[in-house]
Amino acid sequence: MFWRITMAILVASLFVLPAHAQSLSGRVFDAQSNRGIENLEVKLRPPNNSTAAVLIGNTDQNGSFRFSQVKPGRYLIEVSQGPYLLYRTEIDTSRQGNIDIPIQRR
Amino acid sequence: MDIRTPILLMTELSGVAMVVGGMWLIYKQKIYIDKESNQPVEVKLPGNFSFKSNYPALALFALGFFPLIFPFHELHDLPNYPHVVTVKLTGVPDTKVYPALVYASVTPSAVTQDGDSFSVPVPFIGKGDQEYKVLLIANEHVLDSETVKKTGNGDIEIKFRPTILAPPEYQTTSTPLPAGYK
Given B141, B165, B180, which is nearest A48 (Cβ)? Predict the structure, then answer.
């Protein structure tokens, strides 16, 4: 009986532990050639009511980017080339740890 | 209500009281009149100075014109210099990029296409002793900045340098910010 109660408490505690920071990775690529696009700014912007940090990074030569220490929740992900905004969408990092971002050539 | 309006009203009332009071004092001869000469009493002071007893009433009458006229002059200019209460925006940014600058604008003006003008109302700052830094920002990138001082009473025209940007290689998006984001 004692062990059953102990196990039940341990299993239940898994659901009440605070959500851990996780990572979000992705790739920005040319929608036609499927080639990764480097040197684009990727910004992960939390909603107004969130205390999470704004995360900013750049794509590497493969078009890949990675943010670590991302608090789970909703974010706005934006991809820019200098002052030009190329992509903007909302994601939920508690459900999605990876995102592919196709960009159309002009 | 602008706090300066009641102050100017009080100034105006003080002026009226001084002028009317001065006239009343002179009319009622609330001054010491010499019974023999029927003239205001004159007091001789050392150093060849003299003081007549009607001087305070005359001075009250004359000085009263300043607070009487001053509010009319100021009320005329009041809309040009809105009353500003200064508050400080304070905080400690948590960023690893330094130096970082903090700017504040009440109402940024959006320019959506070539030829559009902008108009940003800002609180009055003293003539020539303080200045504004004006930023031209696109997608959070500062394209140009200008520093301006107030030199006259009119609007201040800002002339940004032309910005020549290489066109983007990829299609831009105009997806609006979803609700709940800034």
Answer: B180
For an interface test with A, give the residue of B163, B173, B175, B177 to mutate (most A CBs within 10 A).
B173
**Residue B150's CB: how many other CB atoms inside 10 A?**
18
**pLDDT tens per residue across span B109-157:** 888 888 899 998 887 776 667 888 999 998 888 889 999 887 777 788 8
Q: Please report the ipTM that was assigned to this predicted complex.
A: 0.71
* Residue A42 DSSP SS3: strand
Amino acid found at B56:
P
List residues of chain B with CB under 8 Å from any CB of chain A. Answer: 94, 138-139, 141, 143, 165, 167-175, 177-178, 180-182
φ, ψ for residue B98, nearest 5 deg: -130, 150
Give all domains of chain A, ordered by start, each with its CATH number.
Answer: 19-103 (2.60.40.10)
Could you tell me where the DSSP H helices lie in chain A?
2-16
Q: Per the confidence metrics, is the pTM higher than 0.90? A: no
How many angstroms separate the CA atoms of A105 and B169, rounded? 6
